[in-house]
């Protein structure tokens, strides 16, 4: 284990996150809202930009091959990859504000400055994350759609869903969704700190990924795991509460700052 | 000259683009959230009384339908039926006003040395109370406008023989012929008041309390030196909005896709270009002419 790693308790990081949040309430909430709005606008703009270009092709393809479902899903997937990648820098740039909040006073313009300064490397990372996210899709399609069909639609759409499941290689009994889910989860964990490295160290995307993966492969990652689990559970609870947006406005910055606090106190471990 | 203010407004928009767009988005989201939360909270507060309110208002609406069929006067019932809506809407408009109007802090800075989105937060946190007061006045003005429009609409639509409006015209307006001149008078009153207080956010942003800002705005707008230039600015704004509506209309002739494109263009151009440039133009006009108001 790396001796540079500080063994602060999870509670300590969360307390630091809370203190920083309390003293920078308005700028942190403002930046959170702006990042969400920018990311949504970019996501839907890119998604809508691609649709009219590809849909005539979809019509032609589906008429020729008869596989309407797979053509439409291909278009949606291609659009989603670009949309997610372009939205990623707007969300990840919040890290700069979190770091500033830990050091003292922060302003919303710091967030806008971080978006401008780190856009390109974060875009590269965004494409990487988009592909990682794609690996989760067969699992969601396989289990999620079947569950929705059984619970909400009474199993009436099973035949239609089979086409969608087949497209993702997620036909009933196939082990592929589970395998891809595990691969996706491991890849997400391995890439987790790459955004922090890009924003806080000014590294390029490739170097950030290398550093993040090497941290993940070291036993030091186990020290981070409890904080990650607590953050994930808190965010999940907040997103299921009524008026979830309001709760997320509080929970996301507090735990975002807590994770940034962990990174800043252990940055020597990221080589 | 008016055009000098517009060109200054455009220049400020160009050189503070990111800060202005971020402010518009932030004020929109916060304004909407505060409005929705206030409505939800007030609805929840009214919930314990809901059995009483429901029976009271369902009785009223039953009466309303009955009287519409029989053609009896129903003005009082209509008034009581819309009252709970006002009980919720007036505070909701008032609470959301500071979030929408604090953007003037950024516009004022933008026509000066340069602005950042943080000026919005500064204005919001330091001038919240005064903007809240202004919000209450806006809600009152909204009531006057809606009353005026409702009666006016009943009259016009009734004249055009829309069945429902025609029935309302028969049973609301005919028994009360005085409502038409009242409606017109309310419309005129609203226009004069809205025009007069239109500069109050700028005064609030610069530190005046709500009531004093309203007074200052009145004397600023109804000043011989300013009134025609302000009218010209508003007219230009109206013309640009009208041009965009025409653009959507022309585009809609090309089918549903073109109409959709036109609508998106209207929203994007309107929200992110025409409105901020107009606000910056007003900010420049205010900044260069406010001294006279202060001396008075």
List keywords for this structure.
heterodimer; A: 271 residues; mainly alpha; 12 helices; 0% strand; B: 296 residues
Distance between the termini of chain B: 23 Å
The biggest chain-chain interface is: A-B, 16 and 18 residues
- Quickly count the helices of chain B: 12
Structural class of the helix and strand makeup of chain A? mainly alpha
Number of domains of chain A: 1
Q: SSE string of chain B, helix = H, strand = E?
A: HHHHHHHHHHHH
User: How many β-strand runs of chain B?
Assistant: 0
Give me the count of strands of chain A.
0
Q: Approximately how much beta-strand content do the residues of chain B carry?
A: under 5%
Notes on the structure:
The complex is a heterodimer of chains A (271) and B (296). Chain A has 271 residues and is mainly α. Chain A has one domain (10-269). Chain A is 82% helix and 0% strand. Chain A has 12 helices and no strands. In chain A, helix 4 (94-103) crosses helix 12 and helix 6 packs antiparallel against helix 7. The mean pLDDT of chain A is 83. Chain B is mostly helical. Chain B has one domain. Helix content of chain B is 86%, strand content 0%. Chain B contains 12 helices and no strands. Chain B has helices spanning 2-15, 17-46, 50-70, 75-101, 103-110, 118-159, 163-173, 179-196, 200-205, 210-221, 227-252, 256-295. In chain B, helix 3 crosses helix 4 (75-101) and helix 11 (227-252) runs antiparallel to helix 12. The mean pLDDT of chain B is 82. The A-B interface holds A 26-27, 30, 33-34, 37-38, 52, 107-109, 112, 116, 243, 245-246 and B 18-19, 22, 25-26, 29-30, 33, 37, 40, 116-118, 120-121, 124-125, 257.
What would you say about this model in short?
With 271 residues, chain A is mostly helical.
């Amino acid at each position: 284990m790396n001796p540079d790693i500080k063994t602060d308790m999870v509670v300590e990081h969360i307390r630091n996150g809370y203190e920083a949040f309390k003293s920078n309430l308005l700028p942190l909430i403002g930046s959170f809202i702006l990042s969400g709005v920018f990311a949504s606008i970019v996501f839907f703009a890119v998604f809508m930009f691609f649709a009219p270009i590809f849909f005539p092709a979809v019509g032609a393809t589906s008429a020729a091959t008869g596989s309407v479902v797979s053509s439409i899903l291909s278009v949606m997937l291609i659009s989603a990859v670009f949309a997610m990648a372009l939205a990623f820098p707007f969300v990840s740039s919040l890290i700069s504000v979190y770091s500033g909040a830990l050091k003292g006073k922060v302003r919303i313009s710091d967030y806008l400055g971080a978006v401008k300064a780190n856009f390109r490397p974060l875009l590269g990372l965004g494409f990487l994350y988009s592909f990682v996210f794609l690996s989760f899709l067969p699992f969601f399609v396989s289990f999620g759609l079947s569950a929705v069909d059984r619970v909400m639609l009474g199993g009436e759409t099973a035949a239609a869903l089979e086409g969608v499941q087949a497209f993702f290689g997620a036909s009933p009994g196939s082990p592929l969704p589970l395998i891809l889910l595990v691969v996706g989860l491991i890849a997400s964990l391995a890439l987790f700190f790459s955004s922090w490295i890009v924003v806080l160290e000014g590294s390029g995307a490739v170097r950030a990924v290398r550093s993040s993966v090497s941290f993940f492969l070291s036993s030091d990652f186990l020290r981070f795991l409890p904080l990650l689990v607590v953050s994930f559970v808190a965010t999940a609870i907040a997103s299921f509460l009524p008026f979830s947006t309001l709760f997320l406005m509080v929970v996301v910055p507090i735990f975002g700052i807590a994770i940034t606090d962990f990174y800043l106190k252990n940055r020597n471990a990221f080589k | 000259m008016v055009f000098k203010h517009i060109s200054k407004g455009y220049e400020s928009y160009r050189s503070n683009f990111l800060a202005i767009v971020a402010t518009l988005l932030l004020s929109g989201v916060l304004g909407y959230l505060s409005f929705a939360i206030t409505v939800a909270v007030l609805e929840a507060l009214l919930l314990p009384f809901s059995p009483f309110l429901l029976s009271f208002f369902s009785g009223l609406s039953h009466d309303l339908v009955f009287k519409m069929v029989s053609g009896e006067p129903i003005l009082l019932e209509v008034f009581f039926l819309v009252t709970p809506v006002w009980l919720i809407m007036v505070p909701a408009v008032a609470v959301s006003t500071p979030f929408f109007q604090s953007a003037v802090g950024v516009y004022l800075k933008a026509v000066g040395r340069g602005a950042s989105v943080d000026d919005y937060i500064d204005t919001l946190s330091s001038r919240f109370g005064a903007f809240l007061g202004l919000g209450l006045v806006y809600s009152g003005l909204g009531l006057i406008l809606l009353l005026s429009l409702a009666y006016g609409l009943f009259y016009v639509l009734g004249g055009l023989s829309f069945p429902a409006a025609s029935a309302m015209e028969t049973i609301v307006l005919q028994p009360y012929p005085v409502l038409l001149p009242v409606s017109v008078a309310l419309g005129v009153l609203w226009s004069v008041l809205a025009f007069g207080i239109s500069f109050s956010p700028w005064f609030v942003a610069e530190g005046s309390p709500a009531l004093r800002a309203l007074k200052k705005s009145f004397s600023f707008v109804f000043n011989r030196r300013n009134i025609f230039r302000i009218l010209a600015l508003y007219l230009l704004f109206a013309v640009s909005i009208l041009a965009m509506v025409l653009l959507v209309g022309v585009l809609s002739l090309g089918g549903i896709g073109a109409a959709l494109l036109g609508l998106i263009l209207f929203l994007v151009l309107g929200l992110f270009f025409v409105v901020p440039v107009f606000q910056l133009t007003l900010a420049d006009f205010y900044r260069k002419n406010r001294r006279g108001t202060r001396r008075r």
